[in-house]
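Researcher: Please predict.
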Amino acid sequence: MTRKLDQKTCLAEAQEADHVRPRRSLLMGGAALMTAGTIGSAAAAIGPKRVVTATLGSVPESPPAFSAGPIKAGRGSQLAGRVAVVTGAARGIGRAIAVEYAANGADVVALDIAGPISPVADAVPASSAELDETVRQIRAFGRNALAVKADIRQIEGLRAAAEQIIAHFGKIDILVANAAIQGWKPLLEMNEADWDDQIENNLNGTSRTLRAFVPHMITRHGGKVLIVSSMQGRHGTKNGASYSASKWGLIGLMKSAAMEFAPYGVTVNAIIPGLVGTALTLNPQRLAAVEQQTHHEVKGGVTAAQAWQDRARSEVQPIGWLQPEDVSPIAVFLASDASALTTGAEFEVNGGDSALMA
């Protein structure tokens, strides 16, 4: 079981470790070794090396957990030797990130409930076969893969999954909290489940994901946490208030977690996709919502091709929506050493919707 650590303990262990290894030493497989520390006092406690500047004299050098290091080719895309856990990985954005990680050298744990979650959800539930396909695609890049079935609403199940992963891989370097559901109904017509189920899965489930997995990252004095929010967390959504509220809440969760985990060398950032062609989009209710937003009315059934073309006409970049593989590359950068000084930040991937917002 993971032992409970406080900040002082982690900093002391980081200080001891710093005496026995070079600043840029590498873990097996090429993953950069990260140590804990705070930007100011912890840097002094760890005993940083000194560098000389031309005009200001010597200044402390940041501990490795708080430095992107020297320039080197591909440093924003190299994940060799890393172990990543991706929730909601059976399909969609989760699968794309999991496979993209494998393509860049990481071993990947694909975690998904792979079954029904709530009658509120519009999309057909992910299946065991889809989870198996994600694993197949990861292994096609020559990487190790592990499929784990777990419900992010159940923290004890997540903690058991974390122990299983540690037993299998020995560590967790990267955590992507992606799993989510979506339903559509006017706010005043919602029953308790219409509101509660999306908040419970998307927001509360993400909080439980962090609480189950991040302690294993803290014991190693470093790691990368990515939370997948949504542009619907940046603006209101007609007939989608619960989903928007859950995704808005994830941004606040991300920023708070970034502040709490920073002393341990763990970064936390949010990816904010626009509309993406996943099971959450390619279903009758969501396509009808696209048409409603575009034309303020819906006449008859809506095909995916019709919705894509109609929406493309009004978008900054002339596309109806993105594909999951359009979102996954930013997840590689945020999991790499190059993002060492990036935490508490939002990264929008939306085909230009950002240009329309303040």
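Model: Strands lie at 50-53, 57-60, 83-87, 107-112, 145-149, 174-177, 223-228, 266-273, 346-349.
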